[in-house]
Amino acid sequence: MKKLFFAALPFLIASCYEKTSEETSSLSDNAGKKFTLEVVDTLFIDSGEDIILIENQNARTDFSDDLKYYFNYNYKQNLIDVINLKEHKLERQIPFETEGPNGTTSYVSSIDHFDQDKFMINNFNGLVQVFDSNAQKLKSLQLNNETLNGDTLKPKEKISTFGYMGPNGDTYYSFYERIFEGPRGMAIIDMKSKTLTKIPVDGLDAIKDFYITMKIKGGTQSTSPSFYFLLEGNKILLSNGAINELFVYNIDNDSVTHHTYSSKLTVNSLRKPSKNTAHSQEESNKLYQEMGHEVSFQRFIADPEHKRYYRISHGKNGSTWTGVLTVFDENFQQISENKLPESFYISNSFVKDGQIFSQHNIEDELAFVVMEIKEI
After folding, report:
1. Contact between residue 366 and residue 83 where contact means Cβ atoms under 8 Å apart
2. Global confidence as pTM
3. How many CB atoms lie within 10 A of CB 248?
């Protein structure tokens, strides 16, 4: 299990062996089942005399693969909180330097725990860095054409630092995007040879239709739906908040499968604005409202034990928002779609023993709300 990275507001090539297939996902043979969520516990973390900075930012947190530890990055003090999930307490803190040979820089965008005792700590300026558990820097790599071999980045293209390191640290997996226009495909980097491989994902750029770029006073700003990026085993899941769809990249055979879904409880897409460029805040606000915002598709949550995936989204009917739980099987076929009795906000989370553990800030204390998936 690895954490999910996502890009929100603002959002943040061709390889000769592109292998992309598409399929429209219908209901699976298990369709007809219904599931619901029920909160069964709230676990508070004992921080002792220390303070845990709680941001609810997925990119700056991670879980160990054995689900024994939760890692939280504190940007104010440039340290990582190591939280024991079995004993529900802050076990220790790892302080990092900001400058110098072991410096993280002050622009940390994401962290990732891997290989039992290593951390990837990236920054917004395209720098991938690897540290050991004693805060010593082991390697770093700038994600640009001057440093990387292999495929090249075109003008206005960049590689996201909201990616993750493979299990042994030899490969960095991420996506490449066009600035102000969104993701275009997978970016895979061999850390030893510093070689970039770009794998275009046909249709991934459909999210660009929901971007609103405001050009004013010589500057450019962009707003967009969220984009979700999840590693689960040998697969990478790519989805977004605007369209009821999922792209699955298989690491083993470099193939991409496109799943589209049809909801009976929400609309299947935001409405496209009449245009994507604004020249004033007023015009930008008008275009934003044109999209309707009747749905917000959330990220996929993996449940390896039951070989299922969950997605908790929100649909709007008039002025009322409704929570919707959608369940998928191991092949990403939709099993169930059901309204929830209340709205659930799912932040940094993982599934353990058939329950969803979701990190929350409750009265300035770090806590995990535990929810049970129940068949009804």
Report:
1. yes
2. 0.90
3. 19
